[in-house]
Each structure stands twice: as structure tokens, then as C-alpha cells.
Design a protein that fits this description.
The protein is mostly helical and 156 residues long. Helix content is 64%, strand content 0%. It has one domain.
């Protein structure tokens, strides 16, 4: 593939926008059905820690991609297969961080209805973003990406 305007994975939605929409849907679900989980305060605090860890993972992943000289935004061409930093542990650290951040918020506010939105969020992220990116990267980088896929898990 070249660096033509169509040199991108064609994801269905910008992942951070999907996160914001999912948080809004989770908040609406909580307002409509405010069922709260009876979580201990320490467990709710662990949800806050998960949010902070997810932010740190996202920043690490972004910094690693920049250092490799590739684009972060999925509408732009990939220029390299990034396999160091958090990409040595998961092929999708930025998306793992979005899911972990969402789950952490749900646990911190102890809301089952908010957490229920995690399922459609993960579904759209997986099928509308991740699988499309994998097809694109495999077509663009061939054996280099196939080898990376064989070494590193998709999620965690």
C-alpha cells in the first residue's frame, strides 16, 4: 500500500470518540437505571487506580508510537510496525487503556448500568476498529506484521 489518501484501515469510528460516546451512554444508562453495586470503598478506590493506570498506559503507547515515527490517528497511514514499549505486551495498548479506563470509571462509581455499556463499546472497538486495523497492517507490512501477531497477544 502507498501513502495515498486511502492508505488507512478505514475504522468505523475514531476510538477516543467511541470512548466519549460510550461514557455518555453509560451516564444516561445510570440516570435511567441507577442500580449501584454494593462495592467496598477500597474496591471503588481500585477503580480510580485503574483509571490512572489506563491513562499512563495510553500516554506510554502514544509516546512509543511517536518515537517509532508512525501516526497515532487511525485515519493516517501507518509507517512502521511498533513492537516495543507497551506494544511488546499487547498489540493494542491504546485500546486496552480505553477499555480499562471505562471499566475503572464504572467500578469507581459502582454502577452496573454504566458497566453494561462496556459490552457494546468493546464490540464496536473490536469489530469496527481492531480487526480493520489488523487487516490493513497485515496487507501493508506483510510478514513483519504477521510475525508480530504471532508473538504478541491482541489484547492482554
Amino acid at each position: 500500500m502507498s501513502d495515498a489518501p486511502d492508505d488507512n484501515p478505514g475504522v468505523v469510528i475514531f476510538p477516543p470518540l467511541l470512548f466519549v460516546i460510550s461514557v455518555a451512554c453509560g451516564a444516561m444508562a445510570y440516570l435511567v437505571y441507577p442500580f449501584r453495586l454494593g462495592l467496598a470503598p477500597w474496591l471503588r478506590g481500585l477503580g480510580c487506580v485503574l483509571v490512572l493506570a489506563a491513562i499512563a498506559l495510553a500516554l506510554w503507547g502514544q509516546r512509543t508510537m511517536r518515537a517509532a515515527g508512525t501516526n497515532i490517528h487511525p485515519s493516517l497511514p501507518a509507517t512502521a510496525v511498533v513492537s516495543d514499549g507497551p506494544f511488546a505486551f499487547t498489540r493494542n495498548p491504546l485500546y486496552v487503556s480505553l477499555l480499562a479506563m471505562f471499566a475503572g470509571i464504572g467500578v469507581a462509581i459502582a454502577s452496573l448500568s454504566f458497566l453494561a455499556v462496556l459490552v457494546p463499546f468493546a464490540y464496536v472497538l473490536h469489530f469496527g476498529v481492531v480487526l480493520r486495523e489488523e487487516r490493513y497492517l497485515e496487507a501493508k507490512f506483510g510478514d513483519a506484521y504477521v510475525g508480530y501477531k504471532a508473538r504478541v497477544r491482541r489484547w492482554i
